[in-house]
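hiii so my PI (J.) wants the whole complex modelled not just the main chain, which honestly fair. so below is everything: two entries, each one labled with what it is. i double checked the lines twice but i was tired so who knows lol
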Amino acid sequence: MRAVVLVTVMAVSATPVAARDEPFRRTEHREACADHDALRKPLFGDLHVHTNYSIDAFTFDVGVSPDEAYEFAKGERITIQGTDRDGRPRTAKLDRPLDFAALTDHSEGFDAAKICQDPGTSGYDTPECAVLRAPPPFPARVKLISLIAHVGLVPPVPFSSCLVPGVDCEAAAVSIWQDVQAAAEQAYDRTASCAFTSFVAYEWTAMPGTANMHRNVIFRNERVPEKPISYLDTASPNVLELAPLLWSGLRERCLERDGGELTEDSGCDVMTIPHNSNLSAGLMFPDPADPRTAALFDRVAEITQHKGQSECRFDKFFGAGVDTTDELCAFEQMPTLTLLPLPGPYVASVPPQLFAPRAFLRNALKDGLRLGEQSGVNPFKLGFIGSTDTHQGTPGNTPEKGFAGHVGNQDDTAVKRMSDGGVARANSGGLAVVWAEENSRDAIFEALRRRETYGTSGTRPVVRFFGGWSGHGHDTLDERLCERSSLVQTGYHQGVPMGGDLRPRPANGGAPRFAVSAMQDPGFTGDDGVFHPGTGLQRIQIVKGWVDAAGETHEKVYEALAEDANTDVADRETCTPAAGAANLCTVWTDPDFDATESAFYYARVLEEPTCRWSTYDCRSLGIDPLAPQAECLTQALQASLGAILGSPGSTTTFQDCCRVEPVVQERAWTSPIWYEPAS
Amino acid sequence: MDVADLVRARVLSRLRRVARSPSVHFAVLGGLLFVADGFRAEPGAGASEPSRTIVVTQTDVAQLRRGFAQEYGREPSASDEQSLVEREIDDEILYRRALEIGLDRENKVVRDRLVAVMRMLADDPEKDAEALYREAIALGLDRSDVVVRRHLVQLMTLILRRAGETQPIADEDLRRELDRDADRFRLPPVLTLTHVYFDPARRGTRLEADAAHALAEVRAGRITPAEVAALGDPFVLAARFARRSEAKLRDLLGAGFAEASFGAPVGVWSGPVRSPYGLHLVLVEERIAGRLPALGEVRNQLAGRVRRERGEAALRAKVAELRAGSVIRVEPSGGEPAAEVASVEGVALPVPPPVRELGD
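here's the output for the full assembly
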């Protein structure tokens, strides 16, 4: 007995360094964190946030500065755009502060955002700035179109204000970029308390013909290029060249800085995070000429944010999906192929067959396996995060109840939110969760790079995901891992965490085996002392994608563990969800494994259904989206008559109250774990 | 906060943002050098004796009201109007001061603007820029162009603020700032704890009994801390939390767990403590009291705040000084004679109609 124990101990201790990733490298001057945790902890953040330095946010009358946005992320109450029902300025505060955030203002229009907001510049009076500044009733759509007339064209056109003599757009853009850096530095906690981490970042906003190819550019530390590389710098009539031009620019001006050496005093490091492939018309993930570079920069993608989820698409109206039959993909979807703003209140969704398959991450990941087999490098090896994309300067403000809007004066009231088809379909945004040793830039950046991340649709469940092998012996994943109090430690020893590659298949030939352990959002106690419980968990699914010998790609969704199969809230009157499980854990082994086929596996953890933000809004307007359709439409008609009497000329119909999903299943998506056959 | 405050806050926050931009500072420093150069090269040039009387006419007020309506989409209220007038007076004072010290000379923005305006007016559009610039100056365009005025007001604001911001900051200044806003900087108390989790879903009705049993065993020393851990259930988060504040514990494990842990004695197993996930036995290993950070830990944040505060104070003081040396009249509406506003120590003492001081 004693000998057996000894052998096991030796076997375990022989692997740990190789089994676990190296501890992260420090590339900046700061104190180590007092709450360092070698087994890593979940940090909640938002890596996609706009402030009034974004030309579109400023156009929507958002006045929140980068400093204020960071204060908000840390849990302070700030004043935001708009007034409440009593005419007082609106304020907002997070229920729970974030651990980290990156402000990602659009680098295109840094110059115009500065010039048009700053009366001391000679561009301030241009007709263009006057339009962008014009208050209601000036139609916001005209402003949007004037913005799209720059960045939406192929190739894009610089802001005309920059052509006025005496207007120095270069200096204006640089000055904003320096402010962005200063705000990040001011917000970053370099003490051992490690209360909050900021990142210097921006959004590269390539959108030829309004097809979204946007990527957020996140820098590892305070050493960044002198000027962001914007879409205007990388403009090309060849849309396939756009992202490669960004990458080569970042390589030259960041990665190769200081001879490419990364120390506490030198070197620059960066990654790009694609978002809204769902609105890219498939252009987000074309076959790259250089798959190695694509895989180097795009490490994680936003799987969800306020303009819809990008995991997959299933349209209940058409009863069909985009290369999928997974009905749970019918969650927070946008109706269009690109970012083109919608005319009018309700527009039917574009049919599934018109969407490019790679507009959705699951399909891109499947194709990545195939391309990887062909070229030797999988270009689409993407982990998942969520974020908000708020244009309100309010990072992490994701609750469904009391949703305050994300786009300034476009959606600051319930009436506006339910009057525009695009806004009614937008959601309250997601969160990025990283498993890191500590709350510092280097620790989080490396977690993102190794994809040990998951995305949530805005709530805070805690999810671990480990992959290993079935069978017996020390190189397999314990089938009874869920019963081990050393679950996490053992998971790291015997397997790889989310975002990793399965270790080589053991000689005795098992199948991939995965452990998923999930705990529900713990809830929070509000300022009023009232406890708001988190929603219980409903089930854990494993999503597998693979490519067969003929080069065909496939997918399958496995139910790994389910508490129930509710599709509705438990109490419609109060929107109270079913109890669900506080804690779900399961070990799942692939029953259909073929060792010759490349594959990826990720976990999707679903909460019990809850009321969507729009349900609360519609009820405040006297319309009940949970009532039968006919009744709901009658209420909508009454409400719209009221609106017309209140403000003649109103064309609001509120029909979206009866058309968008009244309940949603919030969820978490872990980064995948990949399997590659031994060559 | 009324709407006037909101308008003011917005304007100030915009100005503050501009002022913090280092590139603007460089530009301003460059500008200052030019100014100094200019004075040396042409002593007295451009420094004509400025008028010390400022009159805001009803035409000016109507213009301000129009501008407000254009920006906010509604008519200004009485208090909005007062803020607008106050701001206009400050701008005029700053503008005159800028002209007085010759900030308009050799200024690229002013020059480009004047050349552009002259090119539109000039009979010969091909004329050389230098000639156009000289013509504009001769015509006094630099003293009447609205863009030039706004630019000079802003430059003057930055220079005045900069005067306060560039004073060296000593450790005592940082210390004073830290003490002034101690609550904001205070580091919260932190705990290091180990916990053992009992899962209601696994244990059902045995939950309480199992936890109580494990607690009794470990307290009596019949089992080691390692062994008590093995009695618990798997947990996704760490078994040991190092130096966590109550807020951080609360966000992960709920207010009940955080409160109970912070109330627990150090060095003894206690519990069971309830969280949204079930029951926990808790061993608080160390408790560190909250404290003010050392200066070195928050030097950057403190220095940033001191600099900003000094910049604002320097600006306020200089504007107040300039106001005190001026005679300011605001024409009331309805054709009554203009009321004179007396200034004492930079605080405007309004003779009706009341005029409020800006920049608090």
